[in-house]
Write a structure and sequence with these properties.
The two termini are 14 Å apart. It is built from twelve helices and no strands. It has one domain: Alpha Horseshoe (Serine Threonine Protein Phosphatase 5, Tetratricopeptide repeat), CATH 1.25.40. Helix 8 packs parallel to helix 10 and helix 10 runs antiparallel to helix 11. It is mainly alpha-helical.
Length: 226
């Protein structure tokens, strides 16, 4: 099955909503980057996840300098200053070289600057420091998908799902890659599982996104639909 231009655009847009919005406190939107070269921040569906990430990445036991540097990087991302954010994160990593999240966040910024090889290197370093970093595997899959390297993307999504089988974003991304590689049955199965998880989490924006993708797949598989 070859996607028409409309479906391909929908595919890219779906990646943006399903990936980076849940892996950084201040997130980047890969689809917007891929289509227009711009950064999209503060989409409504990110608010809940941002609060979760704040809890996960900042704690009362953190060294003050760690929290300060991360907050500065996030502020720069808010301003759309990726170059500044990168410089700040490199300072952070120099100070805290064993901090997996710092490397992970650097990968996000590098990907936002269309530096895929450097982004993957940063994600790999995060994984080296924290072997069960499902978010980093998922992010690497996004980088590969942005380059149409579908089999490599699938491998990374599978690694993320081996760590967390209920990682709904990775399930969605895996499904999209399956669809792109002409495996609609596997795509639907993975999407249905992701849909169920998003529904249980009361994440209505994600539920609606997955439903739309399922509808597109069914339309493209229906010979009666031109």
């Amino acid at each position: 099955m070859k996607l028409n231009s409309k479906l391909k655009l929908g595919f890219v847009q779906s990646i943006s909503c399903m990936i980076m919005s849940i892996i950084t406190p201040i997130s980047l939107s890969p689809s917007v980057l891929a289509v227009s070269g711009k950064v999209s921040l503060h989409t409504p569906e990110q608010d809940t996840e941002r609060q979760r990430q704040k809890i996960a990445q900042f704690s009362e036991t953190d060294p003050p300098e760690r929290s300060q540097l991360l907050q500065q990087a996030n502020a720069l991302l808010n301003q759309g200053d990726l170059t500044g954010a990168e410089g700040n994160l490199r300072k952070f990593i120099k100070k805290f070289p064993e901090d997996a999240f710092g490397h992970f966040q650097l990968g996000n910024v590098l990907f936002g600057q269309k530096k895929p090889d450097e982004a993957i290197k940063a994600y790999r370093e995060a994984i080296r420091l924290q072997s069960k970093y499902a978010l980093a595997y998922n992010a690497i899959g996004v980088v590969y998908a942005s380059e149409n390297r579908w089999q490599e993307a699938i491998t990374e999504y599978q690694k993320a799902l081996d760590i967390n089988p209920n990682y709904a974003e990775a399930l969605t991304n895996f499904a999209l890659a399956m669809w792109q590689t002409n495996k609609p049955d596997e795509a639907v199965s993975s999407l249905e599982k992701a849909l169920n998880i998003f529904q249980q989490q009361n994440r209505n924006e994600k539920v609606n996104q997955v439903k739309r993708i399922l509808e597109e797949i069914k339309k493209s598989d229906d010979p009666s639909v031109s």
